[in-house]
Amino acid sequence: MNKMIWKKAFIKSIPILFSYLFVGAAYGMMMQQAGFSWYISLFASAAIYTGAFQFVLITFLSSSASMWAIGVTAFLMSSRQTFYSLTFLDELKNSGKKKLLLTHCMTDETYAVHCTLMETGSEKRNIMFGVEVFSWFYWAAGAVFGSVAGQLILADMQGIDFCMTALFVTIFIDQWEKNKQHMPALAGIFFAVVCLTLFGPSNFMLPALLLVSFLLLVMGAGKKEAETDGY
Q1: Which of 42, 78, 97, 146 would be a feasible disulfide site paired with 29, CB 3.0-4.6 Å?
Q2: Most distant CA pair in the chain: distance in Å?
């Protein structure tokens, strides 16, 4: 990866930078308030690297929850990320030694940025790799900063996590404007609303992703069959 690739990856990761530094700092502050040192926040951010569960983990660690409860909760809360790599099978197949990081560090935010990349081939794979490296660093740095600054900053941090929602809305609008095919986006909205109504805000994500993934797989199979018949 040359300097130009790293530069492109950094520019693409700037929206994640602002999101992760703020939310990571909020996480670090909460860890500090729960009695955990900055290096615990750093280790958790580097090893676990799933923001939603890390916030829940604070409660688990403070209440001496069982490893079984922690493991099951981590799996359920992070299982949605299993589907992200399916979108980039071609990129992952040819990524070589980068495959491990590309697969396991693909978060909600990096996935959203990957979907905006217009590059192809090795250039796209390398930019994806750079975005994930930078994002991993942003989150860990934000957690350490928040943990260290937790005793000094007395401002109310409530609502700061809305920057994540703003990031996704911005990326959604960008994708809507760039693509002529809006069916995936409309399907995502439809199934999200249906599953939110049926399962509630805490459990709707996984069934919604299952339904959307199934629909897209069926649509993809149908498109390939139509192209074969036309040929």
Answers
A1: 146
A2: 67
CA angle in degrees (0–180, nearest 5) for 114-104-99: 75
Q: Could you tell me how many residues make up the chain?
A: 231
Q: Rounded distance, CA 69 to CA 37, Å?
A: 23
Residue-by-residue DSSP string for 89-132:
HHHHHT-GGGHHHHHHT--HHHHHHHTT----HHHHHHHHHHHH
The two three-digit tokens of residue 40, written as one number: 């615990």
- In tens digits, the chain (231 residues) has pLDDT values of 688 999 999 999 998 898 888 888 888 888 887 788 888 888 888 888 877 778 778 877 777 767 777 777 777 667 767 777 777 887 888 788 888 888 888 888 888 888 888 888 888 888 999 999 999 999 999 888 888 876 676 556 566 556 556 666 776 777 677 777 778 788 888 888 998 898 887 677 668 777 877 787 776 655 545 444 554
How far is Cα 137 from Cα 20, in angstroms, rounded to an integer?
9
CB 143 within 8 A of CB 45: yes
Which of 108, 112, 114, 51 minimizes the C-alpha distance to 81? 108
The SS3 assignment for 182 reads coil
When computed from its CA atoms, the radius of gyration of the chain, rounded to whole angstroms, is 19
